[in-house]
Specification:
Elements lengths: L6 H21 L2 H25 L5 H26 L25 H14 L30 H10 L1 H8 L3 H6 L8 H25 L4 H27 L17 H10 L3 E2 L3 H6 L6 H6 L8 H14 L6 E2 L1 H14 L11 H9 L1
Parallel strand pairs: 1-2
């Protein structure tokens, strides 16, 4: 149970984390530059190898190796490169290829739409009910404060479909379909987003399911299936990592009332309580885009993600200093917790004492 800090403690928390952020930003340099260039080189090499091996798709080992390499390439492009570059983590390098305003990733979601729904809406209003649309993605019930209705009995089914088709779910996210359905937003207002979705989506579909399969001639079908499998692997991986960083047991949500007129320290407090980490080794962290350090990412979204493992011990020490929880655990533990919540929240509330609902009531007191 997280304590409610005093105004003086909130101010001190803000100063501690601002000092840490400033220190890391002042230290950015050649090592960070070399790191992202190396990751891009590996990603491109994996894509070339994967697509090359699919030309030998008549040999099952070559097909499997090709799909594996292409899956890793898509994961790196999505997680460690695309997500982090579009957060502006490498804008200081002044390289157009790694500039947040110009970068486009290998997924059907247009960068411009994603940057609005994710960088602006989600990171500004992290875990604020009614403001952060990433709570349930407009599809799922992921918090007890979301009013239950019979539709949510399908929560596990919707979550499974979202995981399988995750890039498409991310693409559609910025349409705010639930607001259109409720009349809060006119369909005509979505025209700019829909135009970008159409242009980006059709390019991706042609590339993965027509152009590259056609280049392999008689191996069109094995290549198409290989590309679809690589996309599926990337989708399942991204869904798992993102949901483990936002929805395990212990992650708290907030109301608009209690976050009104937030100070810097209170904003940091919300990021800490509204996030969770996943333990693992260096390769695991790279493949997650270092979103296995979701707490650090929510605190400092514009700091190069490779720095998160380095500063995690300091962030954890700051949490301990103020008596705040530092939610972390293995992938199996966090993922099991997430799916337990998805199933539990498919049903009407039966919140026992000691849950995060009690924390919300205590903060409001």
């Amino acid at each position: 149970m997280a304590p409610q800090l005093t105004p003086a403690q909130f101010a001190a928390l803000g100063r501690d984390l601002d000092e840490l952020r400033d220190r890391v930003l002042a230290d950015l340099g050649e090592a960070d530059r070399k790191y992202i260039y190396d990751v891009v080189k590996v990603q491109r090499a994996l894509e070339v190898a994967g697509r090359g091996l699919l030309f030998l798709g008549f040999l099952p080992p070559a097909w499997l190796a090709g799909v594996g390499a292409l899956s890793l390439s898509k994961i790196l492009d999505n997680m460690e490169i695309g997500h982090n570059v579009m957060h502006g983590q490498y804008d200081w390098m002044r390289d157009p290829a790694l500039n947040s305003r110009m970068f486009e990733w290998d997924t059907v979601a247009p960068a411009a739409n994603w940057k609005h729904s994710h960088n602006y809406v989600h990171h500004t209003y992290t875990n604020i009910l009614g403001k952060d649309r990433d709570i349930g993605y407009g599809i799922l019930r992921m918090d007890t404060e979301q009013k239950w209705n019979p539709y949510y009995l399908g929560n596990p089914v919707y979550a499974t479909l979202l995981a399988v088709f995750f890039q498409w779910g991310v693409m559609l996210h910025d349409l705010e379909i639930e607001k259109v359905a409720s009349g809060e937003k006119a369909w005509s207002e979505t025209a700019p987003e829909r135009k970008r979705m159409w242009h980006k989506g059709i390019k991706q579909v042609i590339k993965d399911y027509a152009l590259f399969p056609a280049l392999t001639g008689p191996l069109f079908v094995p290549t198409l299936v290989g590309n679809a499998t690589a996309n599926l692997v990337r989708n399942l991986w991204a869904f798992s990592i993102i949901f483990c960083g936002h929805f395990p047991t212990g992650v708290e949500s907030f109301t608009e009332e209690e976050t009104r007129d937030e100070t810097r320290g209170q904003w940091y407090y919300r990021q800490m309580l509204g996030s969770a980490n996943i333990t693992g080794g260096p390769l695991f962290h790279v493949l997650t885009g270092n979103l296995s350090h979701q707490i650090e990412h929510h605190l400092f979204p514009d700091i190069p993600a490779r720095r998160y493992p380095q500063i995690a011990p300091e962030v954890r020490a700051i949490c301990a200093k103020y008596g705040l929880p530092y939610n972390t655990g293995g992938l199996a533990k966090q993922l099991g917790s997430v799916f337990g919540k998805i199933v539990r929240l498919a049903l009407p509330n039966r919140a026992p004492a000691g849950t995060v609902d009690d924390d919300r009531a205590r903060r409001a007191a």
